[in-house]
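User: Second chain of the day. Same drill as before.
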Amino acid sequence: MSLSNSGKGLSEIAQHLGRHKSTISGERKRNAFSEPYSSSPVQGARYARGKACRPRRKLDDERALKRVRNFFIS
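Assistant: Same format as last time:
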């Protein structure tokens, strides 16, 4: 059973975890889902947020990659 489900308030949870209560509040909002808690949707959301932050690869297009390779190799 999680601290949140056991009826603990934000301040109690924050004190127990050694974090500020605004950190706990932000995490709860960021990872809030309508279904009961499961780590899978949270992990998926975290992965999507991380993927959005990364720069996209410039040569994902296979044809463009071949042209660049041919240009430099030939």
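Helices lie at 10-17, 21-30, 39-53, 62-73.

User: Great, on to the next one.
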